[in-house]
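[audit] Reproducing an earlier prediction to check determinism. Same input, same settings, fresh worker. If the tokens differ from the archived copy the diff job will pick it up downstream; this log only records the rerun itself.
[audit] input (337 residues):
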Amino acid sequence: MQLKKFLLISLLMFLAVLTPVSAQYYLGSEERGVTLGAYAQAGFGAEFKETSNINSFYLRRAVVHAKAHITDKWTAMAVADFAKGFTLLDLYAQYSFAPQLNVRLGQFKNPVGWENQFNPATNELVEGSILTNYVLGNGPICPFFSGHSTTGRDIGLEVSGALFNGLLDYRLDVLNGNGINQVDNNTHKSFGGSLTLHPLEGLSLNGSALYGRINMDVAGVNTRVERLQWGAAAAYTSDMFDLRAEGLFLHLDSDKDKGYNVTGVAHFSDRVDGVAAFEQLFQAKDINILSAVGGVQYNFSKRCRLQAQYIFTQTKNKVVDATDDAHRVVAQLQVSF
């Protein structure tokens, strides 16, 4: 099984390298058909701490996506990741009554956070933001579903649209609140949404929130808690540079976590970008995390790139008065077709 998966991913990467541009492939007639695409991310990482050093090659993602154009207003989307077995990421149908009104049903990204909405193939940060991963429950540090990553997704219904000739985008969601590939485990639903204002060319101002009651493990006991995730962000993009800043907050009953991050990208040329980021996460359990990132990426095409980054992370535990510093270097190749 592992050999088959390795051969499949190797074939995808080989075909992507041979593709001169980051293309997608359309099968069908002009009115109906399926758009197919895929991308893979693999690389090498090394981490240096005072007590230990580790290094490894890794396969981060091997994603295949398909979008079905059923009619001019009705579409369906499926996205799956094969890097660690099979994980269904997105699966939904959407009907567009007008640009101002779209209805989506299925599994998709929840509305909270700015970076959370990014396709990993376009995120300049190789490992993503610690703050986003924590508040949205992406990965092993998910504070509300132990050992279960939500990848910032959920199952439910969404109404969205663009108003006033694209000046304002909105999303309104009713979700299970239990994360990816999970049915609801209680009778409560989570309610949320986002508003994004585009006052100037290249400038976006965003606010988002999601509130609900969830069941989570608290000291070995299945407990129902109130969860509120909310955030605010500002982002500016131009031909010379991109800059974004975001604040995110997580409330689990009386526990309140918060943090912020700032990311900048300098476009030195059509192919070379410089990347820098800084963030802090303040956990309710008196644990503070600081992270700084610096690096460069070379873009072979729109979504084929080579990234190299240095990541410094400092974790302070105020309870035991301890500080843990980690230095990490990563190099990652991304190919897409």
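[audit] rerun output stored. Observation attached for the diff report: The helical segments are 2-18, 130-136.
[audit] end
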